[in-house]
Amino acid sequence: MDLQPGDKAPAFKLATDGAGEVSLSGLKGQPFVLYFYPKDSTSGCTKEALDFTKFSNNFKSLRVPVIGVSKDSTASHDKFKANQKLKLILASDPDTKVAQAYGVWVEKSMYGRKYMGMERATFLVNASGRIHQVWRKVKVPGHAEAVLAAAKSL
């Protein structure tokens, strides 16, 4: 599924760090950032989470929560969040159902070996529950700033 701006955001309900839960219905009426990343505590994913954390007060002032999603367990998320002092929500998608609904569980290739994995992608969803902007195959440098700039336009 190739989601585009204007499409309705697929429903989700995921366990989060801190024994919490986040869902599309629970975020109803407010915009949010949903970003998918491959794995806790890896270099690119750590940099991306730290960049979003760096701008956490800006997102908070806009009332736009930032939610990171990976296959990792909530226990892994708790550890990652504590070690890096992250100020965002980390949600666990162990069966990749949400990733598949958003079209980010894709075939990847490394050293000629093909495997399924999480594409680094971000979705900015507006208060109506519609996708406002999509970033695919994200390159980490400057990404959090670009998402923040787009969130300011909501």
Which structural traits does this protein have?
154 residues; alpha+beta; Glutaredoxin; 7-stranded mixed β-sheet; two-stranded antiparallel sheet; 5 helices; 29% helix; globular
Written overview of the protein:
The protein has 154 residues and is of the alpha+beta class. It has a single domain (13-152), classed as Glutaredoxin. It has helices at 43-54, 56-61, 74-84, 97-101, 143-152; strands at 13-16, 20-23, 32-36, 66-70, 89-92, 105-110, 113-118, 121-125, 131-135. The strands form 2 sheets. A 7-stranded mixed sheet has the order 2-1-5-4-3-8-9, with helices on one face. A two-stranded antiparallel sheet has the order 6-7. The chain starts with 12 loop residues before the first strand and ends with a helix. The model has no long low-confidence stretch (mean pLDDT 97).
